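Standup notes, protein team

Yesterday: finished cleaning the Sphingomonas pokkalii set.
Today: DUF885 domain-containing protein structure.
Blockers: none.

Input for DUF885 domain-containing protein:
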Amino acid sequence: MESARNSAAGPRAEALAEQEALLRTLAADAPPPGMAALPDGDDYYRLLLRRFAGDDADPGALRQRLERELARTLARADALFQQIGRHSGSVGARFTALWHDPDGLYPDDDAGRDRAVADMNLLLEAARARLPGAFGPLPPSVSSVHVQRMSRTEEAAGRQGYRQLPEGSRPGSYVVDLNDIRRRPRWTLPAVVHHELLPGHMVQLPIEAAASPHPLRIEYAAAFAEGWAIYAEHLAAAEGAYRGDALGELGLCHWRLFRITRALADLGIHLDGWSHAQALGKLQAWMGEPAYFAPFAADLNRIVLEPALRAAEAMAWLAIEDLSRGRPAIPFHHRLLAHGRMRTDQFRATVESAR
């Protein structure tokens, strides 16, 4: 509003100034951010969680599961830090120290960015080689993907990374944001490859495009695509992607903490009335450093404005991960992906009916 007023003139600027003044007056007496302070806010939040994820959504059960995953992931990160000789401080503090270790950083120049892209493509080749064991035959377009660098114009404009799905003869790609490359340690990139490309979005989305599910299913199973890509990070680890690579697995742990803690913040803000300061303090303690594309303050603002979405994404991921245990990978993945995204109650029934 302030920006719009500053760029306006005459009666329009005056009207915007009046609106801005009114909003500032209202903000002074506003309740804390989130739905907890609103009439029937908790019921509405539960409906939103069902809307984004599935009719089996249970915020209480999800919170308990996330807290268990948080404890387990922090313990695994601690063990990995012990392996690399970093023994003191909280897990969050050790992530911060590791984040700024120059040994793990690329040079802030064209050569450094080109090296990062080349390293990601090497990781992608290894992921591609593991696909048959988890998926069996796949359409050629699924594995014909690569990492590419943004144009210098895009980098200068601060554009975030984006995907280009395969289309016709054009292969799929992930165009990676390396503008602030000193905040992209090399050990954080393997999980990005597994999430954004293989076996993540670039497996699920092309299969979905070929299946052409009803648009309402795309709309009402919104959490599935991100849930699949988070699961894909776990799948790559289970297939041995980090064998002998403690630093790479620490990167996986940090991304996992990001998914867990933003879902906990979603629940905490909207159901328990966490203040912005409370949520910020918890994220900083748990993670140490924010995810590259989601500074803590900005991500909390998104969580306030999009209630239940991050919790729904975590719910979809954990449901897929739980269902995968003890099931042969190829038929499980085929049933889950062949007809496009599904809601959690729908894909649970689909998978469990095949026993």
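Follow-up from PR in the comments: Residues 1-30 form one domain.
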